[in-house]
């Protein structure tokens, strides 16, 4: 057992991939699939327990110890439910949409590093705790994750339901909008790491985590990943108040379970990507390796990695139990007029500072001071823009209400004052 958690620290490079036997590649793929399925079952249970605790309820506690088997029981129940296909649905697309959503959710994990190069316990074979890697691995994750949007849009369109169609359109607009800010948050990481390879980005964080030295990018990514996964308070495509259930309203049985599975796997995916790009990946937290030489050796890094992923999962759950849902216009306004401009200005600042720093022309203290000034200026500009928007809204509300401005009589709201009223005969009073 000790041999599993000891060994030389070997951070894999791109040359370490592509040499595994076929059986080892298949074994890694199967293990990743099993980890994600089990993680989904656990995350569903964890979410229900944590939210119940926040709301002074008990949560699942009957099936299995502490209710741990409740998610499995729910999965079996979904599988045994009647599989209904609406008459107005496009049957082929309706059946294919959940598959298009769930497959990319699993494929993105093929480039996520779980740990360093390790020795297999049953042989002398050394292999990275990662299925594969490539020079543009992060771009690969974004590209594959974008394919899942097609499944959601097709699922909403093929249902033959207006509610489902609106949910699918909302979801596509939301994901595209927040993928822009998410991609921009990666640029600063690429500038500092000098690579788009996930294993190389982890290796570049051996001294400092990018979540600390690139804190604005980290904050932008965390906000974007919540919007990207359609999770509360950004779960507008599934808003029960106006869309019943969103793009999967007409789905039942295993097809609905696939949408549910994809949502939780995507939640784990963006958490793993945040861990890899901003929190040092599989490296020991809080620089434990400075006083424990074996912290980053053997199979211990897998535990650090999963612990960081669960930290982000808890953030998802915490936000769901704490914040109310935004209005759709507020949500899109925040993405396009706040996150994206902030990201662009931050990238320009990081690129300039990084160039000066590489040329040896800037002291570290001045570097951090310049970053702080840039962030402060951006915040001040956003504050003044918000104030102008609120003043304009207040001025618009203060104007007199014309019930006939659009050509049809509309009664004023309680705080509005009509400038004219008319009788049914058309005479003005």
Care to describe what's here?
- The structure is a single chain.
- The chain folds into two domains: 86-284 and 292-362, no CATH class; 376-418, no CATH class.
- The chain has 13 helices and two strands, in the order αααββαααααααααα.
- The chain has helices spanning 22-54, 70-80, 91-107, 137-158, 162-193, 198-203, 210-213, 215-228, 240-243, 253-278, 300-322, 328-358, 364-398, and strands spanning 117-119, 126-128.
- A two-stranded antiparallel sheet has the order 1-2.
- Strand 1 and strand 2 form a beta hairpin.
- Helix 1 crosses helix 10 (253-278), helix 1 packs parallel to helix 11 and helix 2 (70-80) packs across helix 10.
Tag the structure with descriptive keywords.
EC 7.1.1.-; mainly alpha; NADH_UbQ_OxRdtase_su1_CS; transmembrane; disordered C terminus; 13 helices; NAD
**In the residues, how many domains can be counted?**
2
- The averaged pLDDT comes out at 83
Tell me roughly what share of residues is in helical segments: 55-70%
Largest sheet properties:
2 strands, antiparallel
Indicate the structural class.
mainly alpha
Q: What Rg is obtained from the alpha carbons, in whole angstroms? A: 25 Å
How does the SSE layout of this entry go?
Layout: H1 22-54, H2 70-80, H3 91-107, E1 117-119, E2 126-128, H4 137-158, H5 162-193, H6 198-203, H7 210-213, H8 215-228, H9 240-243, H10 253-278, H11 300-322, H12 328-358, H13 364-398
Antiparallel strand pairs: 1-2
């Amino acid at each position: 057992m000790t041999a599993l958690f000891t060994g030389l620290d070997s951070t894999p490079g791109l040359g370490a991939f592509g040499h595994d036997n076929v059986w080892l590649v298949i074994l890694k793929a199967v293990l990743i699939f099993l980890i994600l399925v089990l993680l989904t079952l656990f995350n569903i249970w964890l979410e229900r327990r944590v939210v119940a605790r926040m709301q002074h309820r008990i949560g699942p506690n009957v099936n299995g110890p502490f209710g741990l088997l409740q998610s499995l029981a729910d999965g079996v129940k979904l599988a045994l439910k009647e599989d209904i296909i609406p008459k107005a649905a496009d049957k082929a697309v309706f059946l294919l949409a959940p598959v298009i959503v769930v497959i990319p959710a699993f494929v993105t994990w093929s480039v996520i590093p779980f740990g360093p190069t390790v020795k297999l316990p049953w042989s002398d074979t050394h292999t990275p705790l990662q299925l594969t890697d490539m020079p543009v691995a992060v771009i690969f994750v974004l590209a594959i994750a974008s394919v899942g949007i097609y499944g959601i849009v097709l699922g909403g369109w093929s249902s033959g339901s207006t509610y489902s169609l609106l949910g699918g359109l909302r979801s596509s607009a939301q994901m595209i909008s927040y993928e822009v800010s998410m991609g921009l948050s990666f640029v600063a990481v690429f500038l500092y790491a000098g690579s788009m390879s996930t294993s190389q980005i982890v290796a570049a964080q051996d001294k400092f985590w990018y979540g600390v030295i690139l804190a604005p990018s980290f904050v932008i990514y965390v906000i974007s990943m919540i919007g990207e996964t359609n999770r509360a308070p950004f779960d507008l495509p599934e808003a029960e108040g106006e869309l019943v259930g969103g793009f999967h309203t007409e789905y039942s049985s295993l097809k609905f379970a696939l949408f549910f599975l994809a949502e939780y796997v995507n939640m784990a995916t963006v958490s793993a990507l945040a861990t890899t790009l901003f929190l040092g990946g599989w490296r020991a937290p809080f620089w434990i390796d400075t006083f424990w030489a074996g912290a980053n050796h053997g199979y211990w890094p897998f535990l650090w990695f999963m612990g960081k992923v669960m930290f982000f999962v808890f953030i998802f759950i915490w936000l769901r139990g704490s914040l109310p849902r935004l209005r759709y216009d507020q949500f899109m306004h925040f993405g396009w007029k706040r996150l994206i401009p902030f990201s662009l200005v931050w990238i320009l600042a990081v690129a300039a500072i990084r160039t000066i720093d590489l040329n040896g022309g800037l002291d570290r203290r001045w570097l951090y001071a310049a970053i702080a000034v840039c962030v402060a200026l951006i915040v001040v500009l956003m504050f003044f823009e918000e104030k102008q928007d609120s003043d304009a809204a207040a001025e618009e509300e203060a104007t007199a209400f014309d019930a006939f401005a659009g050509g049809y009589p509309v009664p004023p709201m309680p705080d509005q004052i009509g400038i004219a009223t008319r009788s049914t005969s058309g005479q003005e009073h």
